[in-house]
Design goal:
Helices cover about 60% and strands about 5% of the residues. With about 130 residues, the protein is mainly alpha-helical.
C-alpha cells in the first residue's frame, strides 16, 4: 500500500490518497506511473457506464459487441472533441441542447396547430 498527498496541501486525512499494488517489488514512483497511465482508461469506462449505459446492452455475437463498443467510443470521442471541456461537461451540454431542440420543435408544432395526440404519436410517446 502506498499513501501520498499533494505537496501543497495541509496534512489531513482527507488529502491522503491510497494506492494498492500486489507487486511489492515496484517503487512508489513506478506504482504512481502505472496508475497515471490507467487513469484515462478507467474514467472512460466509468463515464460510458454511467452516461452512455455501456453495461445495458444485450448482444450475443462478438461482431455486434465490437460494433457497439465502437459506437460508444465514437460517441465519447465526439462529445469530448466537440465541446472541448471533458466528457461530463460535454455530455451535460449535449443533453441540454437536445432538450432545448425538442422543446423548440414542440413549440413550432403547437404554433402550427398540431394536436398533442398527433405530436405524442409522432414522437413515439404514445
Amino acid at each position: 500500500m502506498l499513501a501520498c498527498r499533494p505537496t501543497h496541501t495541509a496534512a489531513s486525512e482527507s488529502s491522503v490518497r491510497y494506492f494498492f499494488c500486489t507487486d511489492s517489488s515496484l517503487t512508489a514512483q513506478k506504482i504512481l506511473l502505472f496508475y497515471a497511465e490507467r487513469w484515462n482508461i478507467e474514467t472512460f469506462f466509468q463515464e460510458t457506464k454511467d452516461k452512455l449505459h455501456m453495461g445495458d446492452y444485450r448482444l450475443r455475437s462478438l461482431f455486434a459487441i465490437k460494433r457497439y463498443m465502437l459506437v460508444l467510443q465514437l460517441a465519447y470521442t465526439f462529445i469530448v472533441q466537440h465541446y472541448q471541456q471533458g466528457f461530463s461537461i460535454g455530455y451535460w451540454r449535449a443533453n441540454k441542447e437536445r432538450r432545448r431542440s425538442l422543446l423548440f420543435y414542440v413549440y413550432q408544432k403547437a404554433q402550427k396547430g398540431v394536436s398533442p395526440q398527433s405530436l405524442e404519436k409522432e414522437l413515439m410517446m404514445a
